[in-house]
Design a protein that fits this description.
- The protein is α+β, with helices and mostly antiparallel strands and about 400 residues long.
- The chain contains 9 helices and 12 strands.
- The chain folds into 3 domains: about 130 residues, Beta-Lactamase (2-Layer Sandwich), CATH 3.30.450.20; about 80 residues; about 160 residues, Histidine kinase-like ATPase, C-terminal domain (Heat Shock Protein 90, 2-Layer Sandwich).
- Strands 2-1-5-4-3 form a 5-stranded antiparallel beta sheet, sandwiched between helices. Strands 7-9-10-12-11 form a 5-stranded mixed beta sheet. Strands 6-8 form a two-stranded antiparallel sheet.
- Strand 1 and strand 2 form a beta hairpin.
- The mean pLDDT is about 80.
Length: about 400
């Protein structure tokens, strides 16, 4: 028998086995898959192919691939793939085509090809898988539209907050001034009850002013971004402590060296300011202790602000981080209920989270995390004795 005839027969048999094997596999795959011969004609396809393009095997087999889906015209990009890009290669992934098919309409698809070649590089058989990403692209476009709508609404809300702030602060300043004049000019005519009422009124005006400022700070967290710089948290904490001026019976201690992070200094200062001011405000022990620490935990920096104050009931652990939610501060002015919600919003903006662990009568530990990568920290090597 002629050697060439024998080799041809062996090659033909090998190709037949390869086709049968490929067809057996592709029938189990949900994406459209087809087998092409060396001339880019469709030999066979799986069930998903026929369902996707709404064609029959009779309409498809023997057709050129770039007449995909019973086309009357070539699909230009597909022809380019087969005639210019794929030759000489055994694999190709993520080739995109976008086309208006006469039956199934507009489609966006990604093609992945695997090619069996002869020793001289001629294509013998090509296995082609198609991923229809039309729906995904439509969802992505709709998501982009919704995000833009949300952004527009947020800008309007931000503008509204500033307008409301201006309109509310002006009369508040007037009320506060009026209270001061009455208290001064009529001090000899007001009895103790009257003076107490005037002081309460003044306190309420201050609280309303603080509430407005708090709402503004809360609304600005996600929309007004300052310049990110390398911030030494040791200095930030010391600045906050000096600003708070805690009473002599309250000691604030930094347990270990804090890292330098990449962030907006004002934002991170607000986090420590609110956590420390809450701890000072609610302190009920003759000797108050507040400890600040930081450790590395996986890919995060884990900060803690621990106190030996009154503690918080477990049922209120989530409530305290909700806006306008406050807990009783015995004998002290009521807060605005914005501080901890502001902390939560800032921390989550940076990709971290915040939570509290507490026991009534023994104190609380507020934790928050910041991602090391986001904050520009690699190997901080932090150690501290933190309750966890």
């Amino acid at each position: 028998m002629d050697v060439a005839v024998t080799e041809h027969a062996q090659l033909k048999h090998a190709l037949q086995e390869a086709r049968e094997y490929a067809e057996a596999i592709m029938q189990t795959v949900r994406d459209p898959i087809m087998v092409l011969d060396g001339d880019s004609k469709i030999i066979s396809a799986n069930r998903s192919f026929y369902e996707t393009f709404e064609v029959t095997p009779e309409q498809t087999e023997g057709q050129l691939l770039y007449r995909l889906g019973n086309q009357q015209q070539d699909i230009p990009n597909l022809r380019k793939l087969l005639e210019e890009i794929l030759p000489g290669k055994t694999t190709f992934e993520g080739f995109r085509i976008e086309h208006d098919f006469p039956i199934i309409g507009h489609r966006i698809m990604l093609l992945n090809a695997r090619q069996l070649q002869s020793e001289d590089g001629r294509p013998l058989m090509t296995l082609l898988a198609i991923e229809d990403i039309t729906g995904r692209k439509q969802i992505e476009e709709r998501q982009a539209e919704l995000l833009q709508e949300v952004e527009n609404v947020n800008h309007k809300l931000n503008d509204f907050a500033y307008i409301v702030s201006h309109e509310l602060k002006a009369p508040l300043r007037g009320i506060r001034a009026l209270v001061g004049w009455i208290s001064t000019d009529y001090t000899d005519k007001l009895d103790e009850k009257g003076k107490e009422q005037m002081n309460l009124l003044s306190d309420q005006v201050v609280r309303m002013h603080n509430l407005i400022d708090g709402i503004l700070r809360y609304s600005r967290v996600e929309h007004i971004r300052g310049e990110q710089t390398r911030v030494d948290l040791n200095k930030v904490v010391q600045d906050v402590i000096e600003m708070l001026k805690p009473p002599e019976n309250v000691v604030i201690e930094v347990e270990n060296e804090l890292p330098t992070v990449l962030c907006e200094q004002t934002r991170i200062m607000q986090v420590f300011q609110n956590l420390l001011s809450n701890a000072v405000k609610h302190m009920d022990k003759p000797q108050g202790q507040i400890k600040i620490g930081c450790v590395e935990e996986d890919k995060f920096l884990k900060f803690s602000v621990a106190d030996n104050g009154p503690g918080i009931e477990e049922k209120d652990f989530k409530k305290i981080f909700q806006i306008f939610q406050t807990l009783p501060a015995h004998g002290k002015p009521k807060g605005t209920g914005i501080g901890l919600s502001l902390v939560k919003k800032i921390v989550e903006t940076y990709g971290g989270r915040v939570w509290v662990e507490s026991e009534i009568g023994k104190g609380s530990v507020f934790f928050f995390t910041l991602p090391k990568k986001e904050m520009g920290v690699k190997d901080a090597k932090l150690k501290a004795n933190i309750v966890s």
